[in-house]
Amino acid sequence: MQARLGFAGAIVLGVALVVSSGPAGAHSVFSIGGLGEPQNPEPARLRALGGAGVAEQGPRDFSLVNPATLAGVERLVFEGSILPQWRRIDSATRPHETAEETMFPSIRAVIALPGRIVLGGAYVAGTSAEFRVDRDDTAGAISHLRVEGTGGLNFVRLSLARRISPSLALGLDYDVVLGSYREEWARTFDDSTLSASRDTLELSYKKRGRVRLGVLASRGGVSLGAAFETEKGLPLTQTQRTAGASVTESKGTLTLPAGFIVGASAPLGERYRAVVQYSRAAWSRSSLESDLVDFRAQQRVSLGFERKPSLERNVGTLDRLPLRVGVYSLVWPDLLPRAGAVDISGGTAGVHEWGFALGSGLRGRDREGAIDVALEGGWRGDRETLGAREYFVRFGISLLVSDDTWKGSFH
């Protein structure tokens, strides 16, 4: 974004910095210059299904993308996830590099209230703009440049859901948009007589809310789910700090676009089911005017299959465990300068991500708790158009705890 990289444009732009530099750390190398890496907030149970959760139904089977899925909750439930990740970056100009990090995609609390009303609260990660780039500069006095980016879009969410009839549920999310973007440019010199320099650029936006509406229809084990997100404009403020100086100015508006999610879940026999989901957020050139990044619609297609655990006593250990597999395709909204270009006038290239997943889980004997795991792998980017390709492996772990005594209070 121009607001993020405005004072650095003369040095390097977009992914061109990454592929011509030394080791890169933090999250995706493609986080530089745009909105950051899109995050999947779903727990490990749904990550193992490719992220397809919009049509989930059940007292513990709910999703973070469709508030109507909460309508089946019958008690007090807590759920949180942790996601270690390992990455390998292959660039067109340097040997491969590796990096690792850990993040928390979401944490949620849900409670069933009288009148078939379900209330929930959650923290959800939207995008991650964390990156680190190191570069040795031999032009003039020999120096070392480190660029570090932090921040992204995050949400604090209040949810409300109610089952209207046995086959129909409605839900409402109110998301308060939090977070900011920060870049720090630090240069040190081999010559001890030269002073190190440090510049920072911070981009913040007003904390405003937007609404998501959800619906879930089900019959005979088949469920259809959909959610719609409203558009919201966030006024931007940029603060640039250098030695002895600080300048703050308005930088226009970042428009979070409207979007929708649709999907289905259907049984494939007694113990098997298939899930599918499609989501689209209408990012475009008008979302944020910039010479350094353009935007297109963000799209995700997910497909998953689940084998439910057997309820019979005389079966093997594997038959007592659920088995989940999934695949997905994700089109990032950022259109970055092509490899070798200094801005989008030299052409743009998008980031397309492909992933697959495998997972399972354990339920407590009293069914009041569960631990789910998901192993994901995939790749994103293109060496020819963006100068780099990134491979990743994630291991998601989610813990769900519920209080069965709460059910007797209201149901």
CATH level 1 class label: Mainly Beta
User: The CATH topology is what?
Assistant: Porin
Shape: globular
- Order of helix and strand elements from N to C terminus: HHEEHEEEEEEEEEEEEEEEEEEEEEEHEH
Describe this entry's structure for a reader.
This protein has 411 residues and is mainly beta. The protein has one domain: Outer membrane protein transport protein (OMPP1/FadL/TodX) (Porin), CATH 2.40.160. 5% of the residues lie in helices and 58% in strands. A hairpin with a 3-residue loop joins strand 5 and strand 6 (117-125). The radius of gyration is 23 Å and the shape is globular. The model is unreliable at 1-25 (pLDDT under 50).
Write the layout of secondary structure elements.
Layout: H1 2-5, H2 14-19, E1 24-25, E2 37-38, H3 44-47, E3 76-91, E4 97-103, E5 106-113, E6 117-125, E7 127-128, E8 131-137, E9 143-151, E10 154-165, E11 168-178, E12 180-189, E13 197-205, E14 209-219, E15 222-229, E16 232-242, E17 245-256, E18 259-267, E19 272-281, E20 294-295, E21 298-307, E22 323-337, E23 348-363, E24 369-382, H4 383-386, E25 388-403, H5 407-410
Antiparallel strand pairs: 1-8, 2-7, 3-4, 3-5, 3-25, 5-6, 6-10, 8-9, 9-12, 10-11, 11-14, 12-13, 13-16, 14-15, 15-18, 16-17, 18-19, 19-21, 20-22, 21-22, 22-23, 23-24, 24-25
Outline of the structure:
The chain has 411 residues and is mainly β.
